[in-house]
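Quick one:
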Amino acid sequence: MRFLQLHSDFIEYEPIVKENKEFAEENVSKSKVRLEDLVVTLVAIEEGDNEKLAMLAVNVIKKYMDTVKSRNLIIYPYSHLSSNLASPIVAFELLKSIERIAKESIEHVHRAPFGWTKALTINVKGHPLAENFKVITELDSSSDLHPIDSDSTGVPSDTRADHEEKISSAIGAEERLQSQWYVLQPDGEMIPSDKYQFRREEENLRLLANYEIAKRRSSDEAPPHVRLMKKMAIADYEPASDVGNIRFYPKGRLMKSLIEQYITRQVMEYGGMEVETPLMYDSKHPAMESYFNRFPARQYNIITDNNKQFFLRFAACFGQFLMAKDFQISYKHLPLRLYELTRYSFRREKSGELVGLRRLRAFSMPDCHALCKNMDQAKEEFLKRFRLSVTVIEALGLSTTDDVEMAIRFTEDFYKENVAFVNELVKMFGRPVLVELWKDRFFYFTLKWEFNYIDNLGKASALSTDQIDVENGQRYQIEFIDEDGSKKNPIILHNSPSGAVERVIYALLEKCAKISKLGSKPSLPLWINHTQVRIIPVGEHHIPFCEKMATYLSNRQIRADIDDRQESVSKKIRESEIEWIRYTLVIGDKETNEEGLTVRDRIEGTHRKVTLEDLANEIQVQTKDKPYLPLNLPRNLSQRPQIMI
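Output:
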C-alpha cells in the first residue's frame, strides 16, 4: 500500500466519467467538491494488501495529522503511485475499510469516489512537512519495523520483499476484532458475560465463553478422541502428509459415508438442489479476490504451467454463487436452495491448531445456501433451517439439550432492528446462549449462529451453523426479477446443518470418552456403527449356520459379521465388547437346534432370549429412516487384514 500525504489549504475535485463501468462506485454526485485546511491522502492499493494494512495505514495517517495539527482528512484513490495494483474490487473494499477505521479516531473524514476520472486541484501548504510519502507492506503489520518513509520527492528510502504469506483481510479483522460478550436467556434478557452467574449445569456454557473470549485455538495435548479413533480403527494421521490430513480406514469411511448420505437426504427433503462445483479457482477472478478479504480462511495456492495462480476452495460458497449468477431467477423461485457436500474443502490452518479430527486442513463440509428476496423472507427461512439443524444434530447422536452449546454473533445495528427475531431463535434453542456483539460489521454477514461441542480439554468446536449474508448477492452479481420487474440482489443464507463430517465423528468420540470417564459404557449410534451384530461360532462346524444368519440379517439391511478366527469364545466376546458392538450372538449346538437365541446386549448389560426375526425388528426400529450400507470389510474376521495402530 502506498500513499502520498499532502497538508493542503484546499482540494477541489469534480467527477467527470467512470473509468471502469463494472467497478466504478455508484450513486456519485457529479457536482464539484471543495474542502479546506486538510490532509489529502492519495492512496494506491497494491497486490496482497489486506485489512491489517488498512488499520496500520490509518495509524500512520493519524500520526501525520497530529504532527501537522490537522483534523480534516480526505482519502483519495490514486492508482498512479504503483504499478503493482490490486484488483479494483479489492482496492474498493480496502479503501472503504480505511474510511471506516479512520472515522473511529479522526474528526472529519471524507472519501473521493472510486473508479471515476476527476478534475483535480490541490493547493499544498508551503512548510517542510507538507508532503509525506509512505509505503506499507505485510511485513510492517507483523514486525517492529516502521513503514517506509521518503523525502518529499516521493522516492522510498528503503525497500522490502513482499511477505511470503498473503492472508485475507478478514483474518486480520478477526484477529483484531473488538467484541462485547453477553449471555442471552430464552426470555430475552441479555447479561454481560463477566456479570453472568453460570449455574452448575451451565459449566459447558462457561467453558465456551472462556474459550471464545480468550481466542486461544492451539492445543497443548491430544484430546481423548485421538486415541479412540486409532483404537477403533476409524482414522489416523497420514505420515506421508502433515498433521492436518487424515487417513480413514474402512470402518471410518463407512461412518463418513452414512453420515454424508443422511445429511444430504435431509437437505434435499428440505428443498436443497444438489450441485457439484470445482475444487480449484482462479485467484485473480474479481469476485474471488474480493471474497478472500471477507472470509476468514487461509487458502492453498497453486501456480499452473502458464503461470496463473489458482487456489483450492475453502468452502462451497463461490462455486454455488458463480452458478447462481448464471441462473434466470424470478422472485417466485425464492427462496432458492443450492446444496453441495464438498469432499474436500481446504484451509491452511495454523499447525498448532491442528489436532485429530477437531480441526483439519482438508474436510468434508455439507454446505447449503438459500437465496432470499428480502430480510423478512431470509428470517423466515433462517428459522426453518435452524429446525433442520436441530433434527440433523439429534439424529447424529448429539443432544441439543445436553451435548452442544449455542453461540450467536451479530452487529449492534442488526440486533436493534431484529430483537424479536433473535429472541425467537434463542427461545427455540431453549437455553441461555453466548452472544458476541460487534459494533461494526467486519465480514459479509450480519448474524451468525453455531452449535459448539465442548470436548474433554475444554476446547469448543463449531458444528451446525448458519449466516445472514448481505454482501455476496451484489458481489457475485446474482440477480432476480422482483414483482415490479426490477432487478435485485438476494440476501444469502449459509447453512451447514451438521458442520464438517469429520468434526461430527470427533464430537461423537469425545462424547464417548466423557461417558467412559463417568463409568458408563460408550457407544456410537447403532446406524453408523460398522458392525451391528457380531456372530460367534463355538466351533468350526457352526460356521455354516452363522453364515445363514448373517445373510438373513444382511437381507434385512443389518450389518452382521462372523468371528470365525481360531480363538477362544471368551476372547471373541471380549473383543466384540472392545469394538463397541451392540449385539453379540454366540452360536453352539443348542442354538442350531432351537428356534430361540441368546443375545448379549452391550448397552443394556443383559442376556436375553430372542428369535433372529425379533432381533432384526428391534434393530430396524432403532435405525428407521437412516441410510444403510453393507459392511466395508470382509464378513468373516479371519479374512480381514490386521490394521496396525
